[in-house]
Each structure stands twice: as C-alpha cells, then as structure tokens.
# Entry
Amino acid sequence: MRKFGKPLAMCAGLLALVAGPAQAQETIKLGISAPMSGAAAVWGLGMEWLAKEAAKQVNDAGGVKVGGKAYRFEVVAYDNKYNAAEGTKVAQTLLNRDDVKYVIGSIGTAPAMALQSLSERKGALMFTTAWGASMKGPKFPLTFTQINTPAEVIPPLYGYVKQEHPAIRTVVLLNPNDATGKETEVVSRKVWESLGVKVLSSDWYERGTTEFQPIAAKMVGLKPDAIDLGTAPPGDSGVVFKELKVLGWNGVKVVPAGTSAEAMIKVGGDSVEGVYMGLSADFDGPQATEVQRRMNKGLRAAVGEPINVIQIGGYDAVMALKAGMEAANSLDPKAIAAVLPKITFDISYGKSAFGAKDTYGSAQHLLVPVVVTQVRAGKLAEVRRLVPAELNQRVGGK
Amino acid sequence: MEIYVQLLVNSLQIGAVYVLFSLGLTLIFGVMRIVNFAHGEFFSLAALVIAVSLPWFVGFGAPLGLAFVVACVAALAVVLLLGKAMYEFGFRRFQRDMTGSFVLSIGLALLLQGVFIEVFTPASRRLPTLIEGNLHVLGAGITWQRLVLCAVAIVVAIGLYWTIASTRLGTALRAVAEDHEAAMLQGMPYRRIAMVGFLIGTLLAGAAGALLAPVTVVTPVIGSAYLIKGFIAVVVGGLGSIPGAIVGSLLIALIESVGGYYFDPSIATIAMFVIVMVVLLIRPTGIMGHA
# Structure
C-alpha cells in the first residue's frame, strides 16, 4: 500500500489544482417567499422551479461576473402560506437567519409587504410579483415589481369585456379578504363604474375557504350581468364558478388576477367557459418566446402545470439581477438598485427594462405586455395584447 | 321562498360533513378526555389517498364508481393504520391528560402536515365528477353528488347513534365516557374501549374526507379548515355529547350559510366565534353537554 502513497498524493494534489477555481467560485444566495401549500401552491412551486432553472442557466454560462470574479447563484425558497403571519416568519428566516441580500421572488401582497418592511430596513434587494400596487414607488428604493398590477391590467381588461358585452349593466365583486383583494377591489369598483356598470355588491372571503355555496347563492340572488372574482386563485375561482352554474347563473365571468386557465378548468370544468382573465398568458402560443416555450415544457413536466405570469417572475428576476450586478460591477444591493432602472436586459419576454416612473414616481416596475385572455372551448385564448409604449421606446421597438 | 329553501339546502350540505367530522372529535373526547387537534389530518389523509389512487385505479380500466369505492376502502384502511399508530405511540400515554394531549396533538398535526406536503406535494388536486347533474327542488339547486354525500353522511350519523344507543359496544363507550373508573370496577376493559372509541373517531374523520374529496379541491392542509369548524361545533354543542355534535354542526353550517348570504363569508366566520363566546359565557358545558 505504501508504494501507492506518493502517486496517490500527487493525483490528489493535481485534482485539487484543477478543481480549485470551480470550488473557489463564491455562492450568492437568492431567496424566495411564496405559497408552497394551499390553493396558490402551484404559484410558489412554479416560481421556485423557474428561478432554479434561471440560476442553473447563469451558473452553466460561467456565473455572474463582478469585479473580475465569477459568482454562482443558489436559490432558497420558503412557504409563506399566502398570509402575512407566515410571510413575516419567512422574512426573518431569509434575511436574518440565511442572511440573504437578494430576494428574487415574493408572491402574495400581504406576505410580500411583511417581507418588504424588513428588506428595505436591512438593505436587501427585493423583486416581487405581488399584485398590490401599494408596494411600488420611491418610498421603497430597493423593491422592484415584476407583474402588471390593477392599474395596468384592469382598465384594458374591463374595457374589452364591456366592448364585447355592451349589455352589461350590473356586476358583483368577490375578493379574498387580504391586502391583495382590498387593493384590487378599489380599482375594480372605480373602473366598472367608469364604464357605466353598477356594482351591486362587493364581498370578501377568507383564503382557505372550502364551502362557497352561501356566497354563490348570494351572488346569484342579486341577478348580476357579470361576476368579477378579483384576485381569487384559480382553484377557488373554479369552485365558485361551479357553484354558480349549479344555481343556474350563466352571465359574464371575469377574473382580473386569473393566472392559470388550466388549473381553473381542472376544478371548474365547463362552468369556467368564457371566463376573461388579465394575468394569464399562453406561453405555448405564437406570441411566446423560445425561452418561455422551453420553460413551459419543463414546468409542465416538473409541476404538472403550465407557466403563468406570476411564476415567470422567478426566472426574470434572476436575469435582471445578473444584469444589474454586472452593470453596477458591485454586489451592493443599493448600487444594483441604482443601476437597474437605467439598463435594458434580457428576460423571458425578450429585451425589457424597469420603468413606469410617470405612474408610480420611480422606475422600478418591469415593463411587460398586458395580455387579455379568455377560456374558449376549454382552452386559453389570447384576445388582446398591449405592449407598454415606454418599453418600445426603451428597447427600440415599434 | 326560493332563497330560504336554497339556504336550507346549503346548510344541510355543508353541515353533513361537519357532522361526521365533529362526531369523531366529540367521541374521542368523550371516551379519552382529550381534544385531538390532529383530527383534521385523518380527514386530509383520506381525501389525499383518494385523490392519488382514484386516477390510478381508473388507469387500470376500473369504472369510475368502482374505482372510487376501492379508493375509499384503501383510504379508510390507511387512515385506520395512522390512527392506530397515533394511539399506540402517543395518545395511549396521555389519556385524560388535557395538557399533554394538547401538546402532543398540535405537534402531530404540524408533523403530519409537513409529511403530507412532502409525500403528496402541496399542489391542489381535483377528482372527476362521479355523479353528473343537478337537482332542483322548490327553486333550490344542488348537485346529485352533494345530495349523495348528504345521504351517506346521514346514514353514517344514524349508524353511529344506533351503535352508541343500542349495542354492547355503545353501552361500554357511554359507560367509560360517564365514569371510566366505575366502568373499570364493573370489569370493562377501559384501554381497549378507549382504543376502539379513538379508532371509530378516526374512521369518521376519514369518512368525511373521503366523501368530500370528489366535491372539493383537495390539498394537504384541507383538514385544518374543518378542524376549526368541527371544534367550534363540538364546543357549542357540548364536548363529549353526540347529539350536541350534530346540533352544533348544523348550527355552524346554518350560520355559515345564512351569514354568507346576508353579509359575507368573513362576517359569517366572525359570527361563529361570537356564538362560541356567547355559549361559553351562558352555558360553559355547551348546548347539550353535561357538567
């Protein structure tokens, strides 16, 4: 055995030399706070998968290059159960225990707000696909939002619905009883009324509700022309539409924050036919990019559901962060936050940028198209796409 | 008129599941003097096993109805095994110990939820409709599937009531619930009766989960929502009282249905907690409970 000792030691030394640079590459932890259980679980699971795919893509391409060094991304995700209490726990875990400086995904306005209150104080950069608009603006210099929220989605969605169904005179609103629902309801009510549609009632339900017959009976009893389920997740929307069908109601159905037609159809069956949605997009369709089609295929295999606009934020945030770090040539979250509004970068939608300063007072909102979709013959159909004029201007499009 | 009938139908269809769930909870309390906060996990497990195994059986060419029956049997068997394990390794040692059993059952609930999320994934699952069509009575609508669920729940509740009231096992369960020391002095095997009571309670929660699985969205945490409602029902009805559990469940369902209609679901939930407080202030043993 002793005669092999020297050659073995030499081999080990050689291996250490070869492997040295790879091992020396430092790892940057990226955090996610998203629902991984309950009705919205598929959002968090999808976001985690997509963020990990993006991190792998970056790592395989040599990592993030800052100050002459290459860094690897590693994604850690925790379940915020879509509520503020769990969101607070996740915020503590990510920012205090794991010492994460970059949160590349947060879902749910209430848990994301809980996270934001700590991330801004601790100087951590935060990306979010939370639907609430109150998280945006210059008050939160380290927060970057990635999905179109009520201000961008609701006016064109309702406008299209009213144009297609001019006979609509009355609507009933139903939203989850949390920050996401509360913020949306205000905008929904205002836009419906501006279109000459009377809001007959506006109700709330707790997330986790399993029996929707009472509220369905109430909504049907008011005999509305349209029912708007606001920010109800796909599973809840499917159950509500099913109960409405049992009671014989078949008016115009709208879900502004409707993200997944497939999940809704799986639950609601043919009762969801005709539903209009504002946050759903066909990532297999002709308008999808090659990256989105590839990710869509991968996510279907991994989670059993297609991508939606909330989940894709996980991929896009990793790409935006990489671009921001390299442009700032710094790992300091504040330096990255300062440079992000000024650059353009490649995300799953193609070239994009942060903007919307005129609307929110700071250029921290990702410029992505507003896509109006409808369930037609049991499938998702894109009926209108609006690309922000600012995006065209920034990336040199039409 | 139509709306009152609809509210009544809604109350009955919601209440049917609450009755099964709370009967198990109250039976376990009656026999063992423990509140099992992990009771919802039996409900979740049955629903999850059916959600996973039914498509599997259908894939083997079994007709949907038969596949559901086989999946139900499998689910109840799995739930029974879990109940037996929880009794043997946990609750047996904490009988008539409210504090110990409280800590144990909360811990078990958290542990099992974590295990279910790992094993079954957190994704929501939906079963295919077993019985198509709706029934309209006096202007009120209900799906045939829900109607069958209610019928089965009523049959199970009557069966349990009959067992408690008219069989040797029922007499033993009542005797143990009334005064376990006196029952033991009469030669009754308390530990065995307690175990049987616990397993019957477990099966009732499993049956509720199995019946609800085809009409709802199944998730690994679905039992938690029913645990809260079931607990409210037994507190209002009277902990340990079988008729109290039935009355409490129907009352809670009525509040949920009527409150949800005239106000909104959130107000209805608040109203349930207000009712609990009022009952506890006026009659701490519950509507039909004994001191």
User: Anything to note?
Assistant: Strands of chain B lie at 125-126, 134-137, 140-143, 217-218. Chain B touches chain A at residues 3, 6-7, 10, 13-14, 117, 121-124, 126, 129, 134, 136, 141-143, 212, 216-217, 219-222, 224-226, 256-262, 264-266, 268-269 (CB under 8 Å).
